[in-house]
Design goal:
This protein is an alpha/beta fold and 337 residues long. The chain has 2 domains: 59 residues; 263 residues, 3-Layer(aba) Sandwich (Alkaline Phosphatase, subunit A). The chain has 12 helices and 8 strands. Strand 3, helix 7 and strand 4 form a beta-alpha-beta unit.
Length: 337
């Protein structure tokens, strides 16, 4: 009898542990997102922490962000958009504004973009890139991956193209967006000018329009939404190593994203690792980008502040303890020790 009881106990414990393991695994964010939307705002630096940006504030109020994520040492657009899209530093990918503008590249190139890995993982998925600065679509994102590339000459037209496509059901698995007019304002008027800050406020308006178009389709429950800048600005432009130039917004919203200020030391290039992780794509070994340790947690609708353990995991744990106590009670008369 004692042998039967021991076997039953072992089976129960094994099943309970397996159920708890399954429950815990269900909250792992790897591959838990159907779509990833990356909104890049050229030249925005840390300005979203200074300006009146109601759309940014409402989107990321209970999500994760850092206003001064680190940029590449060279605070120039191609060097940083290249790193954001390829997961390596600028010295490795080698992009410059000139090369991105003049030289197309294919998937046989070294240091492929995240679109390359998304296409391998999802051969039939829609992948899209909408840019004001067309050099990204021309010379950073590969030209033979069947990525839908849309170039427009103003941020308003970029926004219009995105919202039109989403409204009519053209929803990408992976989407990259580049707004450029904040950088234009800095080049024309300086990085601390009224015109520059007005351009940031305007970018926030476009950001809200894109987010609302996605949310109106009911997509945000399964989507990761990212905002990132390539570099910041000074009164004399950018390209140097000042704090203003080398700080960049990095913000992430999604159902399993922690409400947190991301730890110091995150990079804007970490977007590449975050995007692949969310879509369930293993990070290439050569990447130096990484998923911030404090970014993902359990889905918020399945946790409470007083009980951080996921509800399903707690259920199976308590059920296991109940049966263990029950078997112990029933079998105690047979214990001859």
């Amino acid at each position: 009898m004692k042998r039967v009881i021991s076997v039953l106990l072992c089976v129960l414990i094994a099943v309970s542990c397996a159920c708890v393991g399954f429950a815990a695994e269900s909250y792992d964010s790897f591959g838990r997102y159907e779509h990833v939307f990356i909104i890049g705002i050229d030249g925005a630096g840390a300005a979203f922490g200074i300006c009146d940006t109601p759309n940014f504030d409402r989107i990321f109020a209970d999500n994760a962000y850092r206003h001064d994520a680190q940029t590449e040492v060279v605070t120039v657009s191609a060097q940083n958009w290249g790193s954001i899209l390829t997961g390596v530093d600028y010295a490795t990918h080698g992009f410059t504004n000139d090369s991105a503008s003049k030289t197309q590249r294919g998937s046989d190139s070294s240091n492929n973009s995240i679109f390359y890995y998304a296409r391998k993982a999802f051969p039939d998925a829609l992948l899209s890139s909408y840019c004001n600065w067309s050099a990204i679509n021309h010379g950073i994102i590969e030209n033979d991956l069947h990525v839908r590339k849309v170039n427009r000459k103003s941020d308003a037209l970029v926004t219009e193209a995105i919202t039109h496509d989403i409204a009519f059901g053209r929803v990408p698995k992976l989407m990259f967006v580049q707004f450029d007019e904040v950088d234009h304002a800095a080049h024309s008027h300086g990085g601390f000018s009224d015109e520059y800050y007005a351009a940031v406020v305007n970018a926030d308006k476009y950001l809200g329009e894109v987010y609302d178009a996605i949310d109106a389709k009911g997509l945000m429950k399964d989507s990761l939404f990212i905002v990132v800048a390539d570099h910041g600005e000074t009164t004399n432009g950018h390209g140097g190593t000042t704090k203003e130039e080398s700080s960049a917004i990095l913000a992430v919203a999604g159902h399993s994203v922690n409400q947190t200020v991301l730890a110091e030391g995150v990079h804007n290039r970490d977007v590449s690792a975050i995007a692949l992780y969310a879509l369930g794509i293993e990070q290439p070994a050569h990447f130096i980008s990484s998923v911030p340790a404090d970014l993902f947690g359990a889905s918020r609708e399945k946790t409470t502040a007083s009980n951080p353990m996921p509800a399903q995991e707690k259920f199976w744990r308590d059920l296991a303890y109940f049966f263990l106590r029950f078997i112990n009670l029933v079998c105690s008369p047979f214990d001859k020790r």
